Amino acid sequence: MTAAHPKRTRIATVVVAIGFAVVLLLGPFASGDLDESLFALSLIIACALLVAFATRRPAFALAVPAVVFGGLLVAGAIKFKYLTTPLLAPDLYYFINRDLLDVAHHYPSLMVALVAGAVLIPGLLVGVWLLDRPRLFAHLHPAPRRLVQGIGALAAMAMLVAVDTPRGPFADVFDKGMWAMMNDRNYIVDFFASFWQTQIVVPKPAADADRTLTWTQSSADNPPTCARNRCAQQKFASAQTHPDIVSILEESTFDASMLGDCTIAALCKRKMFEADGRTRAHGPATMHVWGGGTWTSEFSLLTGLNHLSFGEAGLYAPYNLAPRVAYTLPRVLHAAGYRVIAIYPMTGDFINARNAYKDYGFDKFYDGADYGLSWESPDSDLVQVFDRIYAQEKKTIGKQPLFVMMLTLRQHGPHMDPYKTMPPPFDKPLFPGHWKPKDLDDWLNLNLANYLYRLAGSDTAISHIEKTLLDSGRPALLFHFGDHQPSFEGAIRALRKIVPPSVPDSNFITYFMLKSNYKPARSGYSYPALDISFAGSLILDIAGIPKDTFFQANALMRERCQGRYLDCPNKPLLDAYDNYVFDTLHAVHE
Q: Could you report the per-residue pLDDT of 290-331, keeping only the tens digit for each?
């Protein structure tokens, strides 16, 4: 191969140097924290030195960190925009698969970025390699030159390792905490620091816990049989021992009347959020994610735990927490004689769902792909699938009680279908001039029109399922909730939300609704906001199902802190609960 022309080499070097400088300006020099700036700068310099000593090509030595760290900046910004969290190291393991392509298919700009990255990154590096020449240390003879290269490369590698270690000179950078990292936009720092936060960390015993508390219930609060509420079924023709339970996770759904400016009652107020004579508990629900991360809400409902308790790696609960959980709602239901099934709106391979549901204790996983369901499926399609599966299951199992976990998907973002694709009144801006800041008017109106249009479909679907269950002639309980707020690509944060004063962050509030066609043993399940981690024990209480040791404690914590969990202001109470759950019950295996 002929050597590159010197003029072309000089041009390539100048262009690459400019790109390298841009990465420094947008990365290390853009951070307001000196330690984080120096951390990112040290990583980039160490990388450049390592490539320089290894290849002796100065342009290529600048190109590699420019492309790698520049790519991290772009990827982090894109992921934050669409999924509200920066690119983190575990994403490379858990999400670089066909699931990513499915998500990208629904966000055209994300698909363009993926394709461009796949083509441009290797293309740029190959191009610079061909244009550059091994010029460094050219004045040295081969033997001493190789010695200098070896020593320099080892020193650069040592610098790289020393910088990117929690016990190195930038230890404070690694102590920024999971929550700060999840909401931070220092993409280079977040990515490299997250390599050391990918291990599950089970909470350790706290010293200041209230040791006077007990976490087991009396038989009055946790009857060994359903005798206390006369087995509910006595008012029915059916002799079924326990009620059928249907739990519906409503994707990206919240009560639109929570928005202070959503004033069109016919569109903003929906029956699915309103209490009636069959309502046993309802109200605001506290979620642990915002704008995405549905699988963590599934995890909390089914396990009674909060993924935030386990460090950064908790975000990947279906992969690394589901196999370690000792207590789950499906297992308690099994002990009470239930058949437990899941109806999933996508392929079971998505976010490891099929395996995770097996770990949670489900008997049967109905893959949405087998029933023609997909990302675009409206709730009406899911209702048809539900009717078919529910009727089939009840015909097969007879009077055995059934638990169904079903997820919807249509309300998932993006919420930017053109007005012309929606029927009136959603085919035009609904709230002109209401939103601040003003430059978000058009965007928020489009997203809200999409959201409210899809919400109308959800309302119809919930009404159908409610009628199917509660008018069936057998005891039944219906629970549905919103798994997190939609993001509207981040714009929803600009909207004023009406939430209880005790709620620390209005972005993490959705709703829950629990109804039954029988009266439970007690009433008065009212909370300013119910953490989704307590929904499982609430369902068991209203269904009259005996709870195991974990869900007894879960119910007691729910009542003692009025529905609050990690944000419980009574720290000794919270510590006592966590000590019991993790140190006594060993709810999650190390």
A: 888 899 999 999 999 999 999 878 888 998 899 999 999 999
pTM of the model: 0.79
- Scanning the structure block, which residue is given the tokens 């005996």? 546
Q: Please tell me the class of the 233-287+322-544 domain.
A: alpha beta
C-alpha–C-alpha distance, residues 555 and 304, integer Å: 10
Q: Which amino acid is at 425?
A: P
Transcribe 350-385 into DSSP letters: GGGHHHHHHHHT-SEEE-GGGGT--TT--HHHHHHH
In terms of Cβ atoms closer than 10 Å to its own Cβ (0-12, 13-18, 19+), residue 157 is middle
DSSP string, 475-500: -EEEEEEE-S---GGGGGGGS-B---
CA distances from 362 to 250, 277, 328, 583 (A): 20, 31, 10, 26
Comma-separated ranges of CATH 3.40.720.10 domains in the chain = 233-287+322-544
pLDDT in tens, 411-434: 998 899 999 999 999 999 988 765
CB-CB contact of 53 with 137 (8 Å):
no
6-37 confidence digits (pLDDT tens): 777 888 788 888 988 998 998 888 877 888 89
Strand boundaries in 301-345, DSSP class E: 339-343
Query: Are 257 and 274 contacting, i.e. CB atoms less than 8 angstroms apart?
Result: no
For helices 549-560 and 571-578, the axis angle rounded to 10 degrees is: 170
